[in-house]
Structures are given as structure tokens and as C-alpha cells.
Design a protein that fits this description.
Layout (H helix, E strand, L loop, with lengths): L2 H15 L2 H19 L9 H24 L3 H15 L8 H17 L9 H12 L5 H12 L1
Helix pairs in contact: 1-2, 2-4, 3-4, 5-6, 5-7, 6-7
Length: 153
Amino acid sequence: MTLKEQLQADVTAHMKAGRKLELTTVRNVLGEIGTREKSGKTPVDLTDQEVISLLQKEAAKRRDTARIYVEAGQQDRADAEIAEAEVIEAYLPQALSEEDVTAIVDSVIAELKASGTELGMRSMGQVMKPVTAKVAGRYDGKAVSDIVRSRLA
């Protein structure tokens, strides 16, 4: 079952259980997915990775909005945004720890060295490509880049 199919199945489950917050949030996310799929010259079906990326952006958007509400002194609205973000984040894959990402980076560097590749700061792209594929949205890309840079230095 794809992530999109899971979201669609959960709409029915939330509706039957009477969970309005979850129902509204998942419907909004599905609407955003539909908009992305239909925008552009030709309609496309989003892959699970693209849906995960969209979910991360939606959760981040809600957390940012919650922060703005807190600064404006509207805690009740901030709580609602945080609750929506938590519903969205439940669909995201388990995040990796910094140690996990460091281990992945080290293994990729070891594989490249074993294949005879000379590694330096110029080979950042060679290391980042396989690392990014393995991390795939489960850790911040900028932080991954910093880890790779520190290992190559």
C-alpha cells in the first residue's frame, strides 16, 4: 500500500471514528497531493518519496505557523497547528539520529575508498549522492551536508 493509499484509507477510518482533527488534517494533505499531481502540463502520480517530502513541508509549515501564533499570544491557535503537525508527522518514516547518519556517511566513504576513489572536498557530490539516497528524508539535508564536509576535511 502506498502512502497516498494509506492516507485515503485513513480518511474513512477517521470519519467512522469521529476524529475531526485527524480527518480534516488528512483531507487537507490529500488535497495538497492532488493539487501537486494535477499542476503542470501533464498530470503525474507522486511517488512515496515525493509524498514524504510534501508531508515534511506541510508539518514544517504548521510548526512555523504555531511559532508565529505563540509570538502573537494566541496559544489556542498554536496548539491547534501543533496538533495538526503531529498528525502529519505520524505518517513520516522514523527519523534517523545523528549517529545513524554519521555511520551511513562513514560506510559510503569506506566503500568509495575501497573502490580506489581519492576523496577530498572536491568529491563531496560523489559522497552526497548515495548518502542522500540512503537517508531519504529522514534527516535534515543541510546537517547531512555538514557531516559529509567534516568527514572529508
